[in-house]
Prior knowledge:
- By secondary structure, this protein is of the alpha+beta class.
- The protein has 2 domains: 3-90, no CATH class; 93-170, no CATH class.
- It has helices at 3-27, 57-60, 70-80, 84-90; strands spanning 93-94, 100-107, 112-118, 123-129, 132-138, 144-145, 150-151, 162-163, 165-170.
- The strands form 3 sheets. A 5-stranded antiparallel beta sheet has the order 2-3-4-5-9, with helices on one face. Strands 1-8 form a two-stranded antiparallel sheet.
- A hairpin with a 4-residue loop joins strand 2 and strand 3.
- It is globular and about 45 Å long.
Amino acid sequence: MTTKSFFSWLWRAMVDLAVDLAAKFLMCWWLPLFANKDGWLSRRLFWFQTFDASLDWGWQGGTFPPSLSQHWDRTKWLFRNSAYGFSYFVMGIPMDVTKWHVHKCVNSEKKQIFIATDDAGHFNFYYHGPLGMYKFGWKAWNYWDIDKMDWKPRYQWGPLLRTSIVCSANPFKRRAA
């Protein structure tokens, strides 16, 4: 990774964070009103939801218990996954695993670490351990099989062969041994 590629990621990460915060605090409260009966937003609003799960997945999939209000459940799901489509479709990059190089991969009970870069200078830093969970760069680890320590063969995350930008720090999501 070069200084130029880091600053290229940094400005994109700041734009992504601004859109994420706007979606989280200004939009996720009223967006469920525009979802169809199956919990999908229209194409114009698709940047604000996950591409692989409807707004109803959170309670149907067991992430949180269903409540009396479908609107509230959908709002919680959007708050958790705000601007997910924006991170993938707009700020994401095409993913070609043949151009990515894994520099470090650790998979133990105490921690997981994944550090990789591609030929264009994009990077992936993922840490989940006793200090919390930290994700920076682009989500190349979605294409990595941590158990086999190799790229997932013919894997495609999402409707396009892309990977999302990510800038996430959670010191409270710790991995206990």
